[in-house]
Specification:
2 domains; four-stranded mixed β-sheet
């Protein structure tokens, strides 16, 4: 394979990796934003459950206070009944006591309702607090991992750009300009391997004569269908493998 074509193949590998790293670097902040938003929604849900539980407890205390008030009122009314002069006065006190007792029963019923409502609320709050604590730790871990991965990706990008610059400096300027022109026109893919008589990028069959010329590897050639630079890797035979093994043994 011609050196310039080898450089073009390596450039394609590097440029593909640049796309992957750039995509990952840009995706990491979005991922962090999404998990932070999810965490915030869980925090708001917990705050709402806390508020509901607090309101429930306040209502119970208020009902308990009303019961105490009504009981005190009943006690005063019973004391006053002792001083009643007529049956009408006695019955009036009795009627007020019955009304207070009714208020007490209603308050007690409401307290029972609030208690039944508070049990699942309390369980939800405790479960949500435990889950939120774990989720916060997970989010922090993912954020640290994202920062570390971004740093590693950026370092890899810098190394790739350095290697790319060295390759471009060695390449024939015309071949490089051709590579860049095709890459921009073909969604980032400027080089394709000829496999089984077809272009691996567009999958169109290569003319037999063009394929034979490509096998010789003495000139830079392009796919007649998609215009991508073509390269050919001869298949490795059993004899080649045996020769490599023998060389390694020596």
């Amino acid at each position: 394979m011609l050196p310039d074509l080898q450089w073009a193949v390596r450039l394609q590998e590097l440029d593909n990796r640049v796309v992957e790293l750039t995509r990952e670097i840009s995706a990491l902040p979005k991922h962090i934003s999404e998990i932070e938003k999810k965490l915030e929604s869980h925090e708001r849900k917990l705050e709402a459950d806390h508020a509901a539980l607090t309101a429930n407890q306040k209502d119970r205390k208020r009902m308990e206070g009303e019961i105490q008030t009504q009981e005190q009122k009943i006690s005063r009314l019973r004391d006053q009944m002792l001083d009643a002069k007529t049956n009408e006065q006695y019955r009036a006190f009795q009627h007020e006591i019955e009304f207070c007792e009714k208020e007490i029963r209603q308050a007690e019923d409401r307290i029972l309702e609030l208690m039944s409502e508070s049990e699942p609320l309390d369980k939800n709050v405790k479960a949500a607090e435990a889950a939120l604590k774990q989720e916060k730790a997970q989010v922090e871990g993912e954020k640290k991992e994202a920062v570390a991965r971004t740093s590693a990706d950026q370092k890899a990008l810098d190394e790739i750009r350095h290697e790319r610059a060295q390759i471009v400096a060695r390449m024939n300027q015309g071949i490089y300009n051709r590579y860049e022109r095709i890459r921009k026109a073909r969604h980032g893919v400027a080089v394709a391997e000829a496999v089984d008589g077809r272009c691996s990028a567009c999958h169109i069959a290569i003319r037999l004569q063009l394929f034979q010329d490509l096998k010789r590897g003495d000139q830079v050639m392009a796919c007649e269908s998609c215009s991508r630079l073509l390269y050919y890797n001869p298949p490795i035979t059993v004899e080649d493998l045996a020769g490599d093994t023998a060389s390694a043994a020596q």
